[in-house]
Amino acid sequence: MIISASRRTDIPSYYSDWFFNRIADGFVTTRNPMNYNQVKRIELTPEAVDCIVFWTKNPKPMIESLDKLGDYNYYFQFTLNSYGKDIEENIPSKNDEIIQTFQKLADKIGKEKVIWRYDPILLNEKYNIDYHVNYFGKIAEKLKNYTEKCTISFIDFYKNITTNIKPLYLAELNNETKTFLAKELSKIAFGVGLKMDTCAEDLNLDEINIGHARCIDDLLIQRIIGYTINAEKDKNQRLECGCVKSIDIGTYNTCNNRCKYCYANHSQNILKKNNELYDPNSPLLCCELNPEDKVNERVVKSIKCTQTSIF
User: Can you give the pLDDT at residue 190?
Assistant: First the structure.
C-alpha cells in the first residue's frame, strides 16, 4: 500500500503532530469526499505501508521528527515556486526560509527523495515569462545539489478558484506558450544537471527531453525500498496523470497555505470550521465521528514483491 499525505492538504506544514500520532497508533480514519458519512479505517503499520508520499510547501515542522519514521519508506513532493504573498499568502519567505528548508531536508534524507515541484505555472502582467525564467534560474542554482529533478505544470482554471484568481488577471495558456516556457525552463534545469517532467499535462515534449511525471512513482518507490512492487495506474486521477494507485489520508478544506490557485479549498467558511475541529489526537483530520457515520475497515496489504523471480 502507498499512502499519499496529501494531495488534499499540506500535512507536513500544519498537521505533522496529527500524522505522527497516527503513525504511533498504527491506523488512520478518512472520510470519502464523495460520501461524507462513509468512513474508512486504514492500517498504518510498517508491514502494510510500502511507501509514504508527502506533498508540501513547507515541511519544516516535520523535519526534526522524521526519525520516528525509521521503519517506513517515504519521499517528498516539495513545491517551491517564485510567487509572492499575493499568490501564496501563508508561505514563508523563499529566500529566508523555504530554500534552506529544502536543502536541510535533502541533506537529511537524500536528494533522490525530495522532488522539486515548480507548479502550477501561471502568467499575468507581473508573473510573465521573463519573470519565471529569471527566478526559476535563481532557485535551480540553489537546489541543484539537493534534488534530482523538477516537475512542472500549468494552472488549471477550476471553477472553485474563479473568485480567488479573478483579481490576478491571469492570461489563458495555449499549448504554444506552454511549450515555449517549458523549453526555456528545461534549458536551465538541464544546465545545472536536473531532469524535468510535467505533471498531468496533455503536451508531448519528448523532443526537448521532458517526460510525463509519475508523482506517486512506482519506479522511484522501487528504487527507495529495494523491491519491485505490483502497482496499478490510479484510475481516479486524470487521464494524463501517470501516478500509480495510493490511499490519500488528507481532508479537503483544511490547508492553511491559502494559495490563490488551490483546488483543495472550496470554502473559507468550511476551512475555518475545520480548523476549529482540529485535534491532533483524533483519528480523523479536522473532523469528528458522528452517530450516522458508517466506519468500515479498509483491507490493505503490502504490494511489495519479495519472492525472487527466475524470469
Answer: 98
